[in-house]
Amino acid sequence: MKKFALPFLLFLAALPLTSNAAKQLPQLEKDEGLAIIAIYSKGYAEKIKLDGPGFGNDQSYGPLLNAQHFEVQKLKAGKYKWEKVIEKVGESLRRTSDLSNLNLGFEIVPGKLNYIGLLMFESNGSTYSAKVLNRTSIILSIMKQDFPHYLKNYSVVNGIYPDDQYIEYFLNNSQKTTTGE
């Protein structure tokens, strides 16, 4: 746990403050939802690929070098999985790390703000590992601090553990402490 605490504190400190432009909510079609995308890379990842339902419904994030990526993004409803990481090995050489055999999937529910965990990618140049970490309290705290307009306008669902009641518990109890109730 201590190994993860320092990088995540740096993650929190590096996030931008909310701007007026960020407060504009995207228009959602009936088959779209919002995903809280949180990625932490320990090592280098040129592109991290996310594969979604249907043709042409994939996304890529990066490059990340010992860095984090955090955003709220509109996605089509359906099942997604973290597919692969492309790493630059030399001047013109690339290596692809296949993530498809790992259990790194989640589901986007239309009309909702979907918590999908934190993708943690680690690479030392010759080996890699990837996993989705359940960091609900940290991610939702970031949302409350920097993107409260999303929490006010959308119900939050858990895209990795749909039956988990913690998100509702966290949001209800953190509002009480914030408002002094």
Features:
five-stranded antiparallel sheet, 24% helix, disordered C terminus, five-stranded mixed sheet, alpha+beta, 181 residues, 4 helices
Which secondary structure elements does this structure contain, and how are they paired or packed?
Elements: H1 2-14, E1 32-45, E2 47-51, E3 58-61, E4 64-76, E5 78-88, E6 94-98, E7 105-108, E8 113-123, E9 128-133, H2 136-146, H3 148-153, E10 156-158, H4 166-179
Task: Give your account of this protein's structure.
The chain has 181 residues and is of the alpha+beta class. It has one domain (35-179). 24% of the residues lie in helices and 42% in strands. The strands form two sheets. Strands 1, 4, 8, 9 and 10 form a five-stranded mixed sheet that branches. Strands 2, 3, 5, 6 and 7 form a five-stranded antiparallel sheet that branches. The protein is globular, with a radius of gyration of 17 Å. The two termini are 32 Å apart. 22% of the residues are buried.
Shape: globular
* Uncertain stretches of 5 or more adjacent residues: 17-22, 177-181
Largest sheet: 5 strands, mixed
Mean pLDDT, to the nearest integer, reads 86
Structural class: alpha+beta
Distance, first to last CA: 32 Å
Number of strands: 10
Helix content: 10-25%
Number of domains: 1
Beta-strand portion reads: 35-45%
Order of helices and strands: HEEEEEEEEEHHEH
Count of alpha and pi helical runs? 4
Radius of gyration: 17 Å
